[in-house]
Amino acid sequence: MEPFKVHILGCGSALPTLQHSASAQIIEMRGKCFMMDCGEGAQMQFRRTHVHFAKINAIFISHLHGDHCFGLLGLLSTLGMLGRTAKLKVYAPESYGDLFKRQIDFFMQGMEYEIEFVPVDTEKSQVVYEDHSVTVETVPLQHRVPCCGYIFREKPTLPHIRRDMIDYYEIPVSQINNIKNGADWTTKEGDVIPNARLVMPAATPRSYAYCSDTRFVPGLAEKVKGVTVLYHESTYTSENEDRAKLYYHSTARQAATIARNAGVGKLLLGHYSARYNNEEVLLNEAKEVFTESYLTQEGKVFSIE
């Protein structure tokens, strides 16, 4: 099974602290690396976590608050200085399009790689990226500005060949793809060997949902139903639920409620308020509702299994 990992570059909220960096993650899957949000200081987190700049295939921005996008222009500039030549697509709320173009024209003159802005409608669930092995779809969220989450999904793979059966029936290599695609095999004696005896089921496709800043939306559970791992912001504890509602954020308990109702495999907490010197209070609150809850932390890597 190919690696599917989430590298945490930053898990703090808007107010800078010495404890946490602003929101940024790298999703590594099927030989590709996607960046999710790019808060201020993301470049330094690349250095600290030893994730190489050149690995980025595309960048996704959830919304246009500074702690999620102020690091973007600096990162794009650094990629140019490092000699990037491959085209890079930046997916972000469509309202950023005109300003983004002006910033690129002003700051990125002479760069030798192409940057394409892809406008995202944050009010729709839709696939915005697709290749032969991966899809990325949007999930509308409710924040003070247009905002969406993203679900990264593996596409189903073909079943695995049973080498022992291939050898036993002396099936030529030229027929393996046909068998993977469901064909039976007929022996020289005319016996039909059903496909089910020649293959083993493919691994279940894995998925990762990134739900950025949002107030508690009960219906969100249906949108992320059954994902392998869910990241959901958990800015506050329930003691500050009124504050969370006022600023369109969520508590750890609310994040855990979404995870439980969606039947996900694991919940990752993040976007911690600067008021907490120890996020264990957030973790403990979440675990009361959903046992498989975990704290994100800069430099930590989570495998999607």
TrEMBL record:
Keyword flag Hydrolase: yes
Entries under Gene3D superfamilies matching the protein: Ribonuclease Z/Hydroxyacylglutathione hydrolase-like
Active site: D67 (proton acceptor)
Cofactor(s) it depends on: Zn(2+)
Positions with a binding annotation for Zn(2+) 2: D67, H68, D213, H271
HAMAP family the record matches: RNase_Z_BN
Quaternary structure note: Homodimer.
Family: Belongs to the RNase Z family.
NCBIfam families in UniProt: PRK00055.1-3, RNase_Z
Name listed for the protein in its UniProt record: Ribonuclease Z
Lineage, broadest ranks: Bacteria, Pseudomonadati, Bacteroidota, Bacteroidia, Bacteroidales
